[in-house]
Specification:
binds uridine 5'-triphosphate, two-stranded antiparallel sheet, single chain
Length: about 290
């Protein structure tokens, strides 16, 4: 079945980047000139996704404003003629990327609980999940790579994965894998936030997955897990152990916009390649580096 729906969980409290996240959603932090969530929606649109549900929460309505029309701003830019044409296009184009709807997660009870809010939107189709604070930049859009693996392997679901540093695995999930073909693996077990020694491998789920609709029934029946949260990994584990999942060691660079270092790395690396300010920024970075 063709995958045309994606959900973006973006309702978390973002405590790792307080106080910035007190009034601004981390998903709206800019990377040079676009908010994180716009990179994610663009990745979805390039991968054939037509309908997106953003899981949001109190105090995060900026995301809705960003993808909405802005008549006053547009009129002002239009009146500016040719000199404002590019800006006008940027402001309008963002409203046409996909059909975007929103639902609120009223209490932040974890990623699994956030995904459960999408049950009605998803219906009976397989769907994509794109974590709202994980920006992945590359030639080949990440969720498109996972959708292709879903179609080619015929497995129940797919996770995007990468190896993480040994000291970091306790903060992520760990996957039990067998190689299938090229950068695609079969995933037969997984654990969220393994205690030291409990990990299967250094492969961890990062930012993207494709899931069947039966995940909702599992989420409704499993207990709350690590950190007292309803963990999506615990629900995926049930399917992976029973039927097998695919794992794609995806190409592209992932930036974790939920932590301070990730935010800085994204700005520096995207800034260096930016068509407008890249050259000047490179000179500046070299100057800074020389003084370190
Ligand atoms: P994180 O665990 O990275 O987000 O979830 P968080 O809870 O905001 O982080 P900290 O630990 O407080 O800093 C990954 C994605 O899932 C969303 C987040 O918004 C983020 O985009 N999420 C997380 C929800 O939508 N609801 C939740 O209850 C938890």
């Amino acid at each position: 079945m063709k995958i045309t729906k994606a959900i973006i969980p973006a309702a978390g409290l973002g405590t790792r980047v307080l106080p910035a996240t007190k009034a601004i959603p981390k998903e709206m932090f800019p990377i040079v000139d676009k908010p994180a969530i716009q990179y994610i929606v663009e990745e979805a649109a390039k991968s054939g996704i037509e309908d997106i549900l953003i899981i949001t929460s109190r105090g995060k309505s900026e995301m809705e404003d960003h993808f909405d029309r802005s008549p006053e701003l547009e009129a002002k830019l239009r009146a500016g003629g040719d000199s404002k044409k590019t800006m006008l296009d940027q402001v309008v184009d963002v409203t046409k990327l996909a059909n975007i709807t929103y639902v609120r997660q009223m209490e932040q009870k974890g990623l699994g609980h956030a995904v459960l809010q999408a049950k009605k939107f998803v219906g009976n189709e397989p769907f994509a999940v794109m974590y709202g604070d994980d920006v992945i930049i590359g030639e080949d859009p990440c969720i498109g790579q996972l959708i292709r693996a879903y179609e080619s392997t015929g497995l129940k679901g797919v996770v995007g994965m990468k190896e993480v540093n040994p000291e970091d695995i306790v903060k992520y999930s760990s996957l039990k894998t067998e190689p299938l073909k090229d950068n695609i693996y079969k995933v037969t077990d997984m654990i969220e936030k393994p205690k030291p020694g409990e990990e299967f491998s250094l492969f961890s789920i990062l930012g993207r997955c494709v899931l069947p609709a039966e995940i909702f029934e599992i989420l409704e029946n499993i207990p709350y897990g690590a950190g007292g949260e309803l963990q999506l990994t615990d629900a995926m584990k049930v399917l992976a152990c029973r039927d097998g999942f695919a794992g794609v060691d995806f190409t592209g660079t992932r930036y974790d916009m939920g932590n301070k270092l990730g935010i800085l790395k994204a700005s520096v690396e995207v800034g260096i390649d930016h068509p407008e300010i890249g050259e000047e920024f490179k000179k500046y970075i070299k100057e800074v580096a020389n003084n370190l």
